[in-house]
Amino acid sequence: MTEELDPTAQDSDGGSEEVVLTPAELIERLEQAWMNEKFAPELLESKSEIVECVMEQLDHMEENLRRAKKGDLKVSIHRMEMERIRYVLSSYLRCRLMKIEKFFPHILEKEKTAHEGELSSLSPEELVFAKQYMANTETYLKNVALKHMPPNLQMVDLLRSVPKPDLDSYVFLRVKVRQENILVEPETDEQRDYVIDLEEGSQHLIRYKAIAPLVASGAVQLI
Amino acid sequence: MFCEKAMELVRELHRAPEGQLPVFNEDGLRQVLEEMKALYEQNQSDVNEVKSGGQSDLIPTIKFRHCSLLRNRRCAVAYLYDRLLRIRALRWEYGSVLPNALRFHMSAEEMEWFNHYKKSLATYMRSLGGDGGLDITQDMKPPKSLYIEKAECIKDCKRSAKTMGADLKDLSLDKEGII
Questions:
Q1: Which residues form the DNA replication complex GINS protein SLD5 C-terminal domain (chain A) (predicted)?
Q2: What global pTM score does this model have?
């Protein structure tokens, strides 16, 4: 079905840079985003462009399959491919939703105080979902318990009660772009901080906090 | 001892294995709230006495009751919040219609929370992609069918089909291939 697959997938986002990816590259990007999101302790930047493009590709493939001859071997193979892609996409989005629900006060607080131009970690639809989740939970707690409590105890600070993501947790990564002088902070008082260089292609086990910006920039891939 | 009932609520959930939702302990919660009311009123009267008579030896008792109040609140909110997390998991496990047995374990307000959550999730899923959206509560496991069939080639297929990222080698005559 090479003839029917468009070799270039256009970015549906109007105003920004147009990135032209082959379908293979698009799926690779999706898988990278998926793995990063799975292994990172915090919610990563929203990759809505990738999600949108993948959905478009899935629609194209579905359409092509409907027009194809029945019993054609290619049909089964492409269907399998579609299932695989749909699984990765669903898993990626589920992972994000789970983190949003788990850390909702902190995530929403960060959105509120985000500066102009800073990339959001939530897509517009995720933001709506997060706000609804927070409102739903707050209303519930208020109506069932808090409003029946003494007046000075009726406000619960969710930012303090709900745990924050543990940025000190360890992650495995593979280096894609060589990095120099990465500062590794000490864990205990006896240790001192030191710097390391990350060679391209090398793999490391390191605290997430030390390399968080490198995940965002794409210089390292969590595995 | 104060906070006994509150601790019992927490212990009840701690004992229930993950995913299980015990019956909503309305009675237990009510008792915790009543204890809080009583503690608060006792504190109010003591605080007034201290303010008027200057009896500062009441202050440790006031502080103690305040700590009990905070603990009661913490346990109650933890109990309610943990139940919400379990109920949330039910949506992903059972879909939008819960089995009756589970519904009887939920309070009316918990049911309302569940309905709002369901709606919110549905709205989000509908917004994904073009028309119809994507139901991400499906496809929970990677596709297992790695092997569809043993393809016995009866004719020479010289054209290789390129799928997204995968290359199918030419299927040649008489070779059996597992795909």
A1: 165-223
A2: 0.83
